[in-house]
Amino acid sequence: MRPPEDANAHMVIRLMDELIAHWSEPPRYLIRMPSDLTHALRHGDSYERERLSRLKALLSPPRWHELPTALDKLSEARSRERSEEISRIRDTMERRARDAEKAAKAERERQQREELEARVAPVLAAYRDQLEIDFLSEQTRADRPPFDAAPAERLVVERVAFVQRWAADRGLHPDPEQAAAIGAVHDNVLVTARAGSGKTSTLTARAAFLINRCGVAPEELLLLVFNRAAADEMKRRLKHMECEVPHAMTFHALAYAIVHPEETLLVDSPDDSQPALSRAFQKVLNDFLDDERFRLDVQSIMMGHFRADWDRLSRAGLTMSQDEGLQFRRALPSETLRGEYVKSFGEKAIANFLFEHGIAYQYERNHWWGGRNYRPDFTLQSGGQGIVVEYFGLAGDPDYDEQSDAKRAYWQDKAGWHLIELTPHDVSGGGEQLKARLKHQLAARGVPCRQLTDDEIWEQIRERAITRFARMARTFVGRCRKAAIRPHELAQRLAAHKPLSEVESLFLQLATSIFEAYLERLVAEGEEDFDGLLERAAARVEAGDPVFDRKSGRGDLSQIRFVMVDEFQDFSPLFFRLLQAARQHNPSVQVFCVGDDWQAINAFAGATIDYFERFETYMAPAERLAVTSNYRSAPCVVEAGNRVMAGRGVAARAALKHPGEIILADLSVFEPSVTERERYAGVAITPVVRRILARSLERGGTVALLARRNYMPYYLGKEVNAATLDVCSRAWTHGLSDDEKERVTVTTAHKYKGLQADTVVLLDALPRCYPLVHPDWVFTRILGDSVEKLVDDERRLFYVACTRAVRSLILVTDREQSPFLSALGGMCEPIDWQAFPQPSVETTHLIVQVGSQPGWGTSPTFSAKDHLKAAGFQFFKRTWPYWGKSFRKPEGTIEPLRTELAAQTWSTDCKGLEVRVCDGADVVLAKFWVDAGVWQNRPPA
Predict the structure, then answer these.
(1) What is the DSSP string of 870-897?
(2) Using CA atoms, how far apart are residues 571 and 251, in angstroms rounded to an integer?
(3) Which tens digits make up the pLDDT trace of 475-500?
(4) Which residues pair with 654 in a beta bridge?
(5) Taking CA atoms, which of 90, 269, 425, 805 is between 20 and 30 Å from 756?
């Protein structure tokens, strides 16, 4: 039986609730709840007495005694419930009020929209009519009456839709951004067109729109590009749209049409088959070189240039944090007397010492260490022994010291090899301590160290050094020409300039003399270059003669209504002067410029991004537009480009949805096969590239192998003297079919601008490649160059290289990575070499792999290691670790090979081995299980 109070709990609670409600009603709500229920039971009102009597009958004595406390708790609970209910009611009322207010607001806005539409509809209809009647009219400007009665954005939408309808009738499909650019016909316009956004299509469509829809005569348009190929492509596209534009040309062609010079025009052909300009400049230089004093000055400059510590000199007086200093050094490669780029002045000092003492060396030659690619700083061979020189430049860093200890142990255990280690302490004091220590260490190992005379050193580097000086001088003069700097202006700059060293000062003096002599020679020989042609053309237009005459037709700059300029990020002062001359002669001309400031990579050739960045200043009245949708690349490639250039302008958007990939290929962890080790001894880059090519070409696409410069920063074998891209290309594409070779391009990132490939491989995503501040930069400081500015240029070059990829972007590194890669975060997937297998090749050899049979105990091959090493096997640390070696392929079956292997000591003396016989591409042809000389064709039970 339940206790009475439990059985009648519902009644008890109801009676308690009635009492609480009774006591809380006015005026009794001020009366405290009675603590003595017996008193209330006798003297309370009839309502209280009746309910208390019923409660007493229902409750046991202990519960009756506890009833006051229970009434207090229930009263508090009921109070909270009432408060919560009141809060809920209040919230509901407030929500309903908000909803009602929102609905009222929406209704008001709807009414306002309807009123606006009613008011604007006639304006928009009139605007559409005006667009049909005269698209070019000032009436179509959004800020002019009567159309200023409509919101400007609505007028822009109408104008974009108008252009898109026109384009659709001609089979064109510009996106809204492109259509806005096509229809921008009033102020001067700069369109920022990101990579793959259809820049050329937009520009040519705009020309066709002006002619076909706006009634502009073709001869009233002037289309200016930077090279003949771009001009031809523009004409081809216009012809496809049934437009003939007679004045589509390069800036140089326009200048020629204005001046029609009688002088012989000096120009180098694009393929360098007719280097007339180079020959003319060389003749000027040769005249100087006939002077012995000048030759000695050149020798002094180049010897000093190759020996100087430009890093230290350029940082002198600058306050930098440790991180800034490291970044600064990582951007400045050190160039040795022999011409290679090394990572530090310490390595440069070592390389120069070896060169100055006639000691042959290999810089960063590959060694296979435990199946990994290891590249010590310097490798020497002398008297049948190997000598490695390591410069431990970061001694004191715990991780670095641990790696250094491992290297010491490696060379100590390697028979026939010796390690010489040097540190920054040895380079102090101008490097004399290093020379003494290195000479002592080499002499102790029987390597003679005879110091060559400066004349002997110069004789070895003279041809390369003079060629280099000629290139430096020509670049310097070219930069002066494109910046419109005359010799007397250069002299003024020289007077105020503070050179870093005597080498820089002497170079600037010689370069100024060469500049003056070059200009004098042009006059004396009746010759002219393109820069002089542009100057003369601008001067003629400024003097009031705006006529230009070409085979395609005669033109008059004063009659040109629209000028369109491609690749505006590559503008130079000479181009700007000619354009300004035309504008001053014809103030009503409208200039439309298209370019991508993220692709401004031609500062080395005299271009300046200043006109792009300050367009409104130079081209007022002006407006900026953007075309950002990338129709070329996979979304991951577009995002990679955005990350590299983050914070430097409007981002690109991926228009395509097809999948892509960004892969990181680190040479330091690449493990070549037996065949690759033997075929490419000590070389990692060649087997890696051949694997990438095989996989990429198998997919049916095109491949671009891009390098920062024309030389590879990798060891390519003892027989390779100069690792030029031509040499590399032959090694990498050897054995490919003609069709496959047609789909492979090997070139520099600069030369590949404007092009694309399904797979793009950045061969050198390394420090001192991206960014690479060329060692000659010190000679153009007077022209405004600085390390910071040049690193910005390098970032843009890295962006250009990456965004050439359509589907796959593969970044090749080696221990260290370009600092630009840090922006990509986790976007790069480490390469899976299983997906990039060694390409099949015809071979006369088979590969024998000897490893441990799983389940046969712990590392059975450990006991066989010495026997296998003695037999010429090498260790490979893969998913299945093994010892490998190639053997000549027997005729017929492989039984003779098995017999040969069975006679070797490792086979007869060791247990628990698995032997695999593979072809040259590591495809397994046969397996055997060996246990103390017993060979089986299947694994033991």
Answers:
(1) HTT-EEE-SSS-EEEEEEEPPSSSSHHH
(2) 10
(3) 999 999 999 999 999 999 999 999 98
(4) 630
(5) 269
Cβ atoms 877, 671 nearer than 8 A? yes
72-109 per-position pLDDT tens digit: 888 888 888 888 888 898 999 889 989 999 999 998 88
Residue owning tokens 């292997």: 901
What are the structure tokens assigned to 214, written together?
A: 């706006």
Residues in Cβ contact with 928 at an 8 Å cutoff, skipping those fewer than 6 apart = 898, 914, 915, 916, 917, 935, 936, 937
State how far the Cα of 782 lies from the Cα of 472, in Å rounded to an integer. 14
Q: Check if 170-263+530-627 and 659-830 are the same fold.
A: yes
Q: Domain 170-263+530-627 is in which class?
A: alpha beta
On whether the pTM is more than 0.90, the answer is: no
Say if CB 530 and CB 267 are below 8 A apart: yes
State the greatest distance between any 2 C-alpha atoms of the chain, in Å, as a whole number: 137
* Strands 334-335 vs 341-342: parallel, antiparallel or unpaired: antiparallel
| DSSP state at residue 374 | E
Look up residue 528 and give its DSSP letter: E
At 227, is the secondary structure helix, strand, or coil? Answer: coil
Q: Mind listing the pLDDT tens digit for each residue in 891-940?
A: 888 899 999 999 998 888 888 889 999 887 788 889 998 888 889 888 87
Report how far residue 267's alpha carbon sits from residue 533's, in angstroms, rounded to the nearest whole number. 11
The 8-class DSSP code of residue 672 comes to: -
How far is the C-alpha of 941 from the C-alpha of 624, rounded, in Å? Answer: 78
Please tell me the distance from the alpha carbon of residue 594 to that of residue 203, in angstroms, as a whole number.
8
Phi-psi region of 553 (alpha: psi -120 to 50; beta: other; left: phi over 0): left
Give domain limits for the chain: 170-263+530-627, 264-525, 659-830, 845-936
Q: Domain 659-830: which topology?
A: Rossmann fold (3.40.50)
- Name the DSSP class of 260: -
pLDDT at 638 over 50: yes
Map tokens 């017999």 to a residue. Answer: 899
AA identity, residue 533: L
Beta partners for 342? Answer: 334
- Residue 760, beta-bridge partner list: 704, 809
Distance, in Å, from the CA atom of 340 to the CA atom of 362, rounded to the nearest integer, reads 10
Is the separation of the CB atoms in 839 and 690 below 8 Å? yes
Query: Rounded CA gap, 763 and 685, in Å?
Result: 9
